[in-house]
Amino acid sequence: MSKANKVGKELARQRAAQLRLEQQRRARRNRLYAIYGSVVAVIVVAVGVAFAVQAANGPKTPTAVPVGAIADTTGGVSAADGMAIPIGNSDAKVKLTVYEDARCSACKSYETTYTAAYNKLVQDGTLQLLIHPVTLIDANTNGSGSLHAGNAFACAQDAGHFQAYHDVIYANQPNENTDSFASDATLISLAKQVQGLDSKTFESCVNTHKYFDWVKQNYADLNKVTNNSPSTPTIYANGKAFTLPSASTTEAAQAAFIASIDKLAGVNPSASPSSSAAASSSAGASGSPSPSASKS
Question: Any idea which fold 85-283 has?
């Protein structure tokens, strides 16, 4: 074999070897691309699922808010318009934000103890309540009664009977382990105790769950203001955390509550009709067990 032929064959062999090497490298790159592509696809799907779950479970921006509901800019968070149901005059010097749950026993204790006191302050024009129904007990029990009752509260607000219905709901509150408020029929039946509320309009509002997103957003706001450590009732007075007074009797607790609100309002206790009435009531206290509410 000539020297030229030998050189030619060697070059051909080298080219063939180089071609095989390039083919192997190309095949390896393709396998890696396929693996990377599969991994990326799995990640994309996982992220998509996570966002979908979060969107499904998290609160949606409410598309409907109760009639007359207002923005609460003093309740620890600048909430969107219409997140609070107001009771009382908007010119009141003290705005009392209350996050409460219809299933919460501590909320019932608060209402039982202080309703007469805050009603007096509302009538005096000293206090405006800003009520936020939330779903704390649902979150801790996998129930839905808090959500359904909050929706019914909003429906009662639409009908102009929120406060009366609110009081009926707390008066008929079941044990926290009993989720009877998850029944819309139960909530509609309780409306019969409020004159003027039992109507097809109210019934339709309750049954269609018109304000579910609104109630969920209120609970999301509660989590914000408590750094994800929510409890109920959570109360703010003019934007600052408010601690309910501790007393040995209902009358003394009411007197202390009124005195605290009057002080925030800059009302002279000696000249305040509410304080004078509370002082008289406190003087006649009978020494019954403490009514102080413990938060849920």
Answer: Glutaredoxin (3.40.30)
Burial class (CB in 10 A: 0-12, 13-18, 19+), 211: buried
- Read off the pLDDT of residues 87-111 as tens digits, 9 standing for 90 and up: 999 999 999 999 999 999 999 999 9
How many Å apart are CA 2 and CA 13, to the nearest integer? 17
pTM for the full model?
Answer: 0.75
**Cβ atoms within 10 A of the Cβ of 78, count?**
12
Amino acid at 206: V
Report how far residue 116's alpha carbon sits from residue 69's, in angstroms, rounded to the nearest whole number. 23
The whole-angstrom separation of Cα 266 and Cα 160 is: 31
Token output for 246 = 């501790």
| Residue type at position 67 | V
Q: What is the pLDDT of residue 267?
A: 87
